[in-house]
Design brief:
alpha+beta; Arc Repressor Mutant, subunit A; 2 domains; six-stranded antiparallel β-sheet; three-stranded antiparallel β-sheet; globular; GAF-like_dom_sf; WH-like_DNA-bd_sf; IclR family transcriptional regulator
């Protein structure tokens, strides 16, 4: 039992910034393991949420459960102290909600929030998931995926959350190209009525998109100069 546990943990340690995803065969070769044994381990981790398998490439990468564990570690060693104060300062200056979103498979998952002090504000909960094709916080991540991945996400099905939600392949791909070219995303009323969002991408090692930072609030408080100010502050 202990040997099996040790082997399973060894599998997880192979997922590093340098090698964030693995196919079954290449990982089996790397670890000199039997394919069947390794598949059972990977499948167990996937069922429990510690790994996810990309439907297009069939490669495995870390899943949301890892980030749940990371949140526990952060609370112990105060890693969040490096991020949250900056978000808090930004939300105070802009007077809108600022939140950090991790890419989690075909969704974005909210992991940190600094709420606006205004009485009327955009509210989001930690752990909340949003499809990648809708809203600034997630579309700005989807825009930096390759087109095959984008198409795979769209083909899984799209839902019209509001009248402003883009749902067809043509309009989504066209929008993503514009976002990638601009380097940031602005959305208005796409996921929730009367809410704006300004999202910028965050890249990991090797230039892979891993997260986004977003400013959001009620539409009536956004205007062109404030939009420019928010973008300048969030990028800077």
């Amino acid at each position: 039992m202990l040997k099996s546990l040790s082997t399973a943990l060894d599998v997880l340690t192979k997922f590093t910034p340098r090698n964030p995803d693995w196919g079954l065969r290449e990982l089996a070769k790397e670890m000199e393991m039997n394919h069947t044994v390794l598949y059972r381990i990977l499948k167990t981790f996937e069922d429990k949420g510690f790994l996810i398998q990309d439907e297009l490439t069939k490669k495995y990468e870390l899943g949301s459960k890892i980030y749940d564990l990371l949140a526990v570690v952060q609370s112990k060693v105060n890693l969040s102290d490096l991020v949250v104060p900056l978000m808090k300062e930004l939300s105070e200056v802009i007077e809108e909600t600022v939140f950090l979103t991790w890419k989690d498979g075909y969704h974005g998952k909210t992991v940190e929030i600094s709420e606006s002090t205004q009485q009327i504000k955009f509210a989001v909960s930690i752990g909340y998931k949003t499809p990648l094709y809708v809203g600034a916080s997630t579309k700005v991540m989807m825009a930096f995926l390759d087109e095959k991945e984008q198409l795979a996400i769209i083909k899984k099905g799209t839902e019209k959350f509001t009248d402003h939600t883009l749902v067809t392949e043509k309009e989504i791909l066209s929008d993503l190209r514009k976002i990638k070219q601009a380097g940031w995303c602005y959305s208005e009323g796409e996921f929730a009525e009367d809410v704006f969002g300004i999202g910028v991408p965050i890249f990991g090692n090797g230039g892979k998109i891993v997260a986004s930072l977003t400013v959001a609030g009620p539409v009536y408080r956004i205007y062109e100069e404030k939009k420019k100010e928010c973008l300048k502050k969030i990028v800077g």
